[in-house]
Amino acid sequence: MAAPPTYAVGSGPVEILRLVLLLLHVLGFAALIGGLLAQVRDEEKRITPPVRDGIGTAFVAGLLLVGVLEAGDTDVDHVKIAVKFTIGLVLLVLVMANVRKPRIPEGLFYGLLTLSIVEVVVALFVSPVHTS
To answer: Residue 76, SS3?
Structure first.
């Protein structure tokens, strides 16, 4: 009996999984930042469903993406992942703690927006962990 095929990151189903998780991660941040930017001119800021769902999707997809990358043979930048995890966790906690409130303070709103943009900047300008 032949041994089942093994796949590494960069080939076959594992690469497809990595790309799907990366897409979900990016879409999550797009929803988060878009949901925040849509309220910039509003007098009362609040946590909207796109903000809530965006950070949840981005955080979970990011965790799963790290798992797929760690399972592969490529080197992973643990410092970058730690920074992104910390910022993402802070965003997730702040969003979930304020999701039922009818409005949030402007300082919190702009803090969420700033942290979201910093998260994207770290992803883009610090050494990439998901190059094949």
So the answer is: coil
Task: Dig out the tokens for 87 from the structure.
Answer: 């910022």
Say what the pTM is. Answer: 0.86
Domain coordinates in residue numbering, the chain: 12-125
Query: Quick one: what percent of the chain has pLDDT higher than 90?
Result: 74
Per-residue tokens: 72: 């592969």
For residues 91 and 115, what is the distance between their CA atoms, to the nearest angstrom? 7
Cα separation, 44 vs 18, whole angstroms: 38
Which contiguous run of DSSP H or E holds residue 16? helix 12-37
Amino acid found at 65: L
- Which residue blocks in 9-130 are alpha helix, DSSP H? 12-37, 49-71, 78-97, 106-125
Query: pLDDT by residue (tens digit) across 85-124?
Result: 999 999 999 999 999 999 999 999 999 999 999 999 999 9
| CA-only gyration radius of the chain, Å | 17
User: Reduced to 3 states, what is the DSSP secondary structure of residue 104?
Assistant: strand
